[in-house]
Specification:
- By secondary structure, this protein is of the alpha/beta class.
- It has a single domain, classed as Aldolase class I (TIM Barrel, Alpha-Beta Barrel), CATH 3.20.20.70.
- It has ten helices and ten strands.
- A ten-stranded mixed β-sheet has the order 1-2-3-4-5-6-7-8-10-9.
- Helix 3 packs across helix 5, helix 8 crosses helix 9 and helix 9 packs across helix 10.
- It starts with 18 loop residues before the first strand and ends with a strand.
- About 0% of the residues have low confidence.
- It binds iron/sulfur cluster.
- The site of iron/sulfur cluster (SF4) has 10 residues, from helix 1 and strand 3.
């Protein structure tokens, strides 16, 4: 199922289509679902599950680098291996909102755009810190989240869990740990870490159980590689998140250099996996989005 085809040339920042680079090491990109929502052509599953507004969502990263190189990742990896100087949170927030408005300016005058929504989009009220790279590599991630919270924006922080200190300190509206591995061996094979970060991930899961904020364990599922509900059930019990998202790996972007299309489970297979989780844990299926091949489970 895993392809051994190497990506020939190393990608650089300028190769990032549609990204607005912010400061020394951050970036903003208008999400596909924001664009669809502006044209009343649908919205993302997080709007369906959690009520955020896709058209008012600012998608960003404060760290154009990662400490993992996951085989399922559809993003170009390691664009800024050496970040010399870290920017202040206020600057990242200010400049990211300005960058979003610049990216949206192209929609004025575009046929089929809902003008009322576009005006609202110019005032983003939701931020998804999940664009590319590992956001907790930014040393002031807790302060950055706090800066957005202070502006009454709902903050979704999506991390790979390799930085327990950030899990402890950051207080986003919704905290995600995104997993593909379920033990040390699968961590090495699927996350291809720089060094072994499995202990860190286990510590982060433990810390997640103590968080007061809303917590989500997202499981990205690849056929014949990690669809082991009995293994993930143990990690769910460890982290006790409020929500579990069982989501199909999507055969997109750079992941196609590493994985065959067959590695992408159907929604029915994700549903079956989730029903198995229901049997093995105190979590119950409460929603799903077939178009995004994701099932939501909530702690009973
Ligand atoms: S929450 Fe994620 S998928 Fe939804 S609009 Fe924001 S970036 Fe896009």
């Amino acid at each position: 199922m895993v392809r051994r085809r190497r990506l020939t040339e190393q990608k650089t920042l300028k190769d990032l289509k549609g990204y607005a680079i912010v400061g020394n090491h951050s970036a903003v990109k208008t999400c596909l679902w924001l664009k669809k929502s502006l044209k009343d052509e649908g919205f993302c599953y997080k709007q369906k599950f959690y009520g955020i507004k896709s058209h008012r969502c600012l998608q960003l990263t404060p760290a154009l680098k990662c400490n993992l190189s996951c085989i399922h990742c559809w993003r170009p990896l390691d664009l800024l291996p050496d970040i010399k100087e870290w920017d202040e949170p206020e600057l990242i927030v200010e400049e990211s909102i300005k960058a979003q408005r610049r990216l949206l300016s192209g929609f004025f005058g575009t046929k089929g755009v809902n003008r009322k929504k576009l005006d609202e989009a110019m005032q983003p009220n939701q931020v998804a810190i999940s664009l590319i790279g590992e956001p907790t590599l930014y040393p002031k991630i807790a302060e950055l989240v706090e800066e957005f919270n202070r502006r009454q924006m709902t903050t979704f922080l999506v991390t790979n869990g390799t930085n327990p200190k950030a899990i402890e300190e950051a207080e986003p509206y919704q905290l995600y740990i995104s997993l593909t591995a379920y033990d040390e061996e699968s961590h090495r094979a699927l996350n291809r870490p720089k060094g072994n970060l499995w202990e860190n991930i286990l510590n982060s899961l433990k810390l997640m159980a103590e968080k007061k904020t809303r917590t989500v364990l997202r499981l990205t599922l690849m056929k014949n590689l990690n669809m082991r509900p009995e293994k993930f059930a143990l990690l769910i019990e460890r982290a006790m998140p409020r929500f579990v998202e069982a989501k199909a790996y999507m055969h997109l972007g750079y992941s196609r250099y590493r994985l065959e299309r067959e590695a992408m489970p159907s929604h029915e297979e994700v549903r079956k996996f989730s029903e198995e989780l229901e049997r093995l844990t105190d979590y119950r299926i409460t929603d799903e989005s077939p178009i995004s091949r994701v099932v939501l489970l909530e702690r009973a």
